[in-house]
Amino acid sequence: MALEGEVTRISFLASSAPLAQDARAMLSARYGDVAPEHAQVVVALGGDGFMLETMHRVLGRGVAVYGMNCGSVGFMMNTFSADDLPARLSRTQATSLHPLRMTATTRDGRHHESLALNEVSLLRQLRQAAKIRIMVDGRVRLSELICDGVLVSTPAGSTAYNLSAHGPIVPLSANLLPLTPISAFRPRRWRGALLPSTAQVLFEVLEPDKRPVAAVADFTEVRDVIAVTVREDRGVAATILFDPDQGLQERIIVEQFTV
Q: Which residues are known to be catalytic?
């Protein structure tokens, strides 16, 4: 979804950081401020974490998000500037992202659904390593992974936790989902896999009483899971805006040459 016509309805949201709060007050006084549900674009002021929160807040509502960096990390953010913001917004490049849908079943039999724009991760809850069976499209691909955890990432999220766990960076156009172990103990040499975006991944937790596992979709945590299904949900989309020649695809390419 690209912005069309003059941008007159802007919603400003800010993290709790004083710098972001000051920026919001200044921009609201200068350009006005509307509720997110009435805006043509939501401007998120903060870092990457707050940008992710804002994208979740408007997910599925058809509202684009433009981030301006007022935090410490700004991979998803544009450079902060208060000058001529409506014209700047009208020149942006739009990127559409599809989230992962996590369905987690807990030991008490309850089911929990959450969306993730970065990744879905399974993490051990206690001192003992987790034991997890991995199935892809109904077939067992790894009968037992002993690890601190394992994650499935979106292409956009491949530069986040996935990269920290030594997973591959994936271009947006690749239609691939990185599957990456976190501190794998057995099989020691397994480094993960690249799955087609149509794949459905099922994680089954082995020995859940002895080795409890939590599942996390971005910042939504479900504890004591016994099974977690992950798939890309093409029916939901988030639109983020970047300044010309600074789109997310370009940033992902640049990240691969950063040393």
A: 48
